[in-house]
Amino acid sequence: MRVATGGPGKAAEFWARRGTIVLGGLTVASLAVLVVLGLFVSDPDYQQGDAVRLMYLHVPAAWIAYLAYGVTSLASALYLWKRTRSPAWDTLAGASAEIGVLFTGLTLVLGSLWGRPVWNVWWAWDARVVSTAVLFFLYLGYLALRRVPADPAVRARRSAIAALAAFVDVPVVHFSVEWWRTLHQKGSVFNRELNPTIQGNLAWALLSGVFAFTCLYLYLLERRYQLAVMEEAIEERALEAAIAERRAEADVPPVRVPS
Amino acid sequence: MIDPPVVLVARPKPKRMRYIVAGGLCAAAVLFLIVGGLSRNIVYFRTVSEGVTAHGKAPDDTGRLRLAGAVLTGSVERRPDGVTFVVTDGTTRARVLHHGDPPELFKDGAPVVCEGHFVKGDRAAVPTFDSDRIMIKHGAEYRPPSVDASK
Questions:
Q1: What residues make up the domain containing B21?
Q2: Fewer CB atoms inside 10 Å of the end CB: C or N, chain A?
């Protein structure tokens, strides 16, 4: 990308780029710590053995899905509220939802891989699993809706309302294990008693997973947001060019037919 | 002749239908999951007490259900075509006749969910449940083997 020449723009870009690099470095380092803690330092579980290590990916992935949809909802609400309305909120909402869908998919796949050895099934039609799959399709549908061509303001408004409607499923997923009978275990950290039931170095491995995935989310969000800004700039430029072309055509004096 | 203005990037053609169809498919998937999948499974399993009581009221009914309880210690008996054991929820018991290999984590005291049906017309106090799938329902406790459970 071309760097703006001189002035405060250059400095801002320099610091923004530096921030991205620091965040990226932190993400890689924390993922490395997760690999060490999750695969080598932490003990196998007293029941599940080594299969428990899948938790250090499955639970953080689910947490990122919640976080990403939370950010999407917040940005959507800020877009809908007239006093804070800005197209930037719409862009942020879309960027975060995309990452959310990715991590919801990861949650399902990792959960399935974990379920096979410890539950004895790849899939269970229980409330937790099904509501998570519903979450995946709700936000995948939201992403499709975002791409249906329309006036930018109409599209942003429509998307914001859809995002807030889809968010209803997030508490349903989270509390499904409390509200209904499921094969899925209840929460280990944010359970009803708020008393974590994960102990020893297993807890540290899980915590490092949550930290690493949070860094990864922030890094991806920043990258995806910048990409969306560039996409919008391209779209705008193409639109301006098309308008200029029409104008040029209209300005051409009518061709005189030689008599 | 007038040169046309240089357009750096071609304006993408709107792909309206493609995204409407994609959105519609997602909505259909949501509907399928909720109506087709969840409505019948919102109560994922019955406890042994609930299952045995229901069977006692209609012994000839052989509807499929999932029965949840713990494997009674010492009751497991391996057979050539599977395994038999007693499942209990502390108050009521049922005898499970399982066809196929039991799961890896199956053992005395394991919390299991068995899928199958009660044997038709079985009026015994401890009725027999014909199972073809055993799932393990784990608790949410995780700890190294060395940490004391009473902690």
A1: 11-42
A2: C
CA–CA distances in Å: residue A149 to residues A153, A166, A194, B90: 11, 21, 46, 60
Task: Tell me the HSE value of B42 on the side-chain side, using a 13 A CA sphere.
Answer: 7
Domain containing residue B55: CATH number: 2.40.50.140
Q: Total domain count for chain A?
A: 1
Question: Are residues A174 and A182 in contact, defined by beta-carbon separation less than 8 angstroms?
Answer: no
Q: What is the pLDDT of residues A125-175, one digit of tens each?
A: 999 999 999 999 999 999 999 999 888 999 999 999 999 999 999 999 999
Beta carbons of A163 and A93 less than 8 angstroms apart: yes
Query: B26: exposed, middle or buried (C-beta count within 10 Å: 0-12, 13-18, 19+)?
Result: buried
Neighbours of A59 (CB within 10 A): 22
> Whose structure tokens read 């519609």?
B24
CB contact under 8 A, B33 and A182: no
Judging contacts by C-beta atoms under 8 Å, the chain A residues touching residue B29 are: 133, 137
Quote the CA–CA distance of B79 and B131 in Å, as a whole number. Answer: 14
Residues B59 and B98 in one domain: yes
Does residue A38 have a pLDDT over 80?
A: yes
Cβ pair A217, A99 in contact under 8 A: yes
Angle at A78 between CA A160 and CA A67, to 5 degrees: 75
> Would you say A134 and B30 are in contact if contact means Cβ atoms under 8 Å apart?
yes
Determine whether A247 is exposed, middle or buried from the number of CB atoms within 10 Å of its CB (0-12, 13-18, 19+): exposed
Q: pLDDT of A190-249, one tens digit each?
A: 776 767 888 888 999 999 999 999 999 999 999 999 999 999 899 889 889 989 988 888
Query: Are residues B116 and B55 located together in one domain of the fold?
Result: yes
Q: To the nearest whole angstrom, how far is the Cα of A61 from the nearest Cα of chain B?
A: 18
- What ipTM does this complex have? 0.84
Q: Is B141 in contact with A186 (Cβ distance < 8 A)? A: no
| Separation CA A70–CA A67 (nearest Å) | 5
Question: Is A7 contained in some domain?
Answer: no
On whether the pTM is more than 0.95, the answer is no
Nearest chain B residue (CA) to A129: B38
Inter-chain touch B41–A149, beta carbons under 8 Å: no
Is residue A56 packed enough to be buried (19+ CB in 10 Å), middle (13-18) or exposed (0-12)? Answer: buried
The whole-chain average pLDDT of chain B stands at: 87
Q: Is the residue at B85 inside a domain? A: yes
